[in-house]
Design goal:
587 residues, alpha/beta, 7-stranded antiparallel sheet, 6-stranded mixed sheet
Length: 587
């Protein structure tokens, strides 16, 4: 886009935008004739995909702001009118997190829907993301909207959409909604304050609380009678997010003693002042919580990310050192716990009719457990939009859903709602830890017993920042090499290659992958002769090129050494950070 077209787009913006702050931003850019900034802000629209919207909060078509939220809401509203029978009476369920402007964005969304005569359930307090997934189905809504950017930096926000089943949208809904957004860009004339006070807008908080906590007690808690005597103090941090009250009530529902809060992080703070990134996965993110635990002689730390859909955990070992569990370790701990407890409570259950799922970049240890236990196992593409929808499909086919996870500390215990949930996950993990304590075992010891039973699996998952989409595409084009993929990575021979961007899998007789193909997402998996699996993918929500490498065997020292050799070879040969300008995380 050239300067004149960008200026024309900016003028259109000024005709539509009613927010004085963002109007002032644009007026300043126009007055300075800043070509680079004009093209950045108005050269392309923020894209709507299966993750909804996510981006920096600032003025312009390319960002999150009042106008782009209104436009997204109008497009979603028109799409639902066309696609969902009795949409207006079913309505939408809307929540928001503690980020800057989240409540405003939620209220604009609510008013937009109410202006078309749709019922709106608008949460009147900061909300954990999984509660919107749950609320969508609990209230029989046509869709749900959660205003959140999860664990992104403080400058970001997002707009996440759930379908009628409470799972994140998948194609073709994303494309259909995007089409309607583009067809309904002019803001509808609405009176936001009046609409928010109308009879169409309801506060569902108290009813939601009753329904959600009754559901997790019924489906996720197995030892409530013993939990009152729990002797493992738990330190909890919501990472400056919304989890404080929601997770406290989950502990109360399970009959667990109250958690010990991390004082510096327990209250919502949209600036996330004590962490570089508000993501419990990041190195050092749990340091503050572990210091709190040391002061209180507590050996277990549990964390939510800011919108409370993820779960992290750390445990102090007998030597005084802390073990921070990665997502795959928490995943296998919870998977085995959920299965063992469900089986004990339902001794006549047929294992083969019970399902466990994880994403293709998550640990294959779950597959090993499923094979040994006789459970039905599947892997999906990355993201809970795939895991949640597949869990429901399997239930409709007669399977009992037990558990799903992905390595990015996302866990779905039972089918309370079809999305990852750090609220119920926190209570389940605390119950598990206390049960193990009564057996004289740590969580780390439990994990070791699972390695003894199913084999030792180790992962090395990390990322580089890649801020230029052209560079990302070039890296993957070089990996593909016009279809002549490499036969070796370093000294390690490649056995199979699966490319879910172009639709190629040489492990299949017809060379067609079993998982869905997406041309818009870069994702290539290498399986080596020694059984190691390495996947490279571009993140859908952040400027990152991620790598996931896993190796398994009987001897942990050998597994560790070979795994790191393969990771080094993958980085040096396939990613070439220096040549491609990839940046390492600062930690």
């Amino acid at each position: 886009m050239d300067l004149q077209k960008a200026l024309a787009q900016a003028e259109q913006w000024l005709k539509w935008d009613k927010n004085p702050e963002t109007r002032a931003e644009v007026e300043k850019i126009v007055a300075s004739n800043d070509e680079k900034e004009l093209i950045k802000r108005f050269g392309q629209r923020i894209s709507f995909g299966t993750a909804g919207l996510r981006g920096t909060m600032q003025a312009g078509w390319s960002a999150m702001n009042d106008l782009t939220v209104i436009q997204a809401s109008q497009g979603l509203c028109v799409y639902l009118e066309k696609m969902v029978e009795n949409f207006k009476s079913k309505g939408v369920f809307i929540g928001y997190d503690g980020r800057h402007h989240s409540r405003t964005f939620a209220e604009l969304t609510a008013a937009t829907f109410a202006s078309r005569g749709a019922t709106v359930y608008l949460m009147q307090r900061l909300t954990a993301t999984p509660l919107v997934s749950f609320g969508t189905t609990a209230f029989g809504c046509a869709a749900g909207v959660m205003v959140t950017a999860s664990h992104n930096p403080a400058a970001d926000n997002g707009y996440k959409v759930y379908w009628t089943n409470g799972a994140q949208i998948v194609s073709p809904h994303d494309k259909g909604i995007a089409t309607e957004i583009d067809a309904n860009l002019a803001p509808w004339p609405i009176d936001v304050p009046a609409l928010l006070k109308s009879a169409l807008v309801h506060d569902p908080v108290e009813e939601l609380i009753r329904k959600y906590y009754a559901a997790i007690l019924s489906k996720c808690c197995y030892h409530r009678a013993e939990n009152a005597a729990a002797k493992v103090p738990v330190v909890f941090t919501p990472m400056h997010g919304v989890g404080k009250e929601w997770t406290a009530r989950a502990f109360e529902t399970f009959g667990l003693p109250p958690y010990i809060p991390v004082p510096e992080q327990i209250e919502p703070d949209a600036d996330f002042p004590t962490v570089s990134f508000p993501n419990p996965e990041e190195k050092g993110a749990l340091d503050c919580a572990m210091r709190t635990a040391d002061r209180n002689n507590a050996r277990l730390v549990i964390a939510n990310d800011p919108d409370a859909d993820r779960l992290a955990a750390a445990e102090r070992q007998p030597d005084g050192k802390w073990k921070v569990f990665n997502g795959n370790e928490i995943g296998i701990l919870l998977a085995h716990w959920c299965w063992s407890q469900y089986k004990a409570a339902h001794p006549d259950v047929v294992p083969g009719k019970c399902s466990v799922l994880n994403s293709t970049v998550s640990s294959k240890m779950l597959r090993a457990m499923a094979e040994k236990e006789g459970l039905y196992y599947e892997e999906t593409l990355t993201g809970f939009k795939w895991l949640g929808n597949r869990a429901q499909q399997l239930e409709q086919n007669g399977y009992t859903f037990i558990f799903a996870f992905e390595e990015a500390i996302g866990f779905m215990v039972s089918d309370v709602c079809l999305d990852k949930d750090g609220v119920r996950g926190a209570a389940v993990f605390a119950e598990m830890a206390n049960y193990l304590d009564r057996q004289g075992q740590l969580c780390s010891g439990y994990l070791q017993s699972l390695y003894d039973k199913y084999g030792y699996f180790e992962t090395n998952n990390r990322y580089f920042f890649c801020y230029d989409p052209v560079t990302l595409d070039r890296i993957f084009a070089e990996i593909r090499n016009n279809g002549q993929y490499c036969t070796h990575v370093g000294a390690f021979k490649v056995k199979h290659i699966r490319d879910l961007t172009v639709g190629y899998d040489d492990s299949q007789p017809d060379k067609q992958p079993l998982l869905p193909v997406s041309k818009s997402t870069q994702m290539v998996t290498f399986t080596f002769d020694n059984g190691c699996v390495a996947t490279l993918r571009g993140s859908g929500t952040e400027p990152k090129l991620k790598y996931y490498v896993e190796f398994s065997g009987q001897d942990p020292a050998t597994v560790h050494r070979v795994l790191n050799e393969i990771v080094d070879a993958v980085i040096a040969q396939l990613l070439q950070p220096e040549k491609n300008g990839l940046l390492k995380p600062t930690d």
